[in-house]
Specification:
mainly alpha, Arc Repressor Mutant, subunit A, 5 helices, 74% helix
Amino acid sequence: MFDYNLLLTGITLLLCIVLFWRSILLRKRLGERSNFLHMQNAKCKEINQLLESNENLHSDGEDFLAALRLAEAQMEPQNPRTHFVPKPKETHPPERYIYAKKMHQSGIQKEEIASSLGMSGNEISQILKLANLCHNVEDKQDLQGSLRAA
């Protein structure tokens, strides 16, 4: 005969374990958000202090750096808050697009690439233009990053 009390005890134990694990995860997330709120509160206090010190600035521009810090502090709350939004998975282009780019870089003509990959010539042209645009954007971002570091 099947013992329903044992089954009920097992299910209850499993449910308790799942609830315990969920509570641990929620406490961790709560701690992260609490830390984030403390940081934001500290930034707000810093902004208030800068605003109070800004009242003492002269209009002739003596304290340009203080005004600049004030402007940066005022812009900080407007930055996007993506800490709690899950990041999208990184996507990669299809392999044949990568092959088309590599074949073109090695000097193969567009028509030959199209015939070997079973694609149209226009599609190959578009892929190469998009790859060139992406490369230019990455170069600009690298340049901006190096300028910010300097």
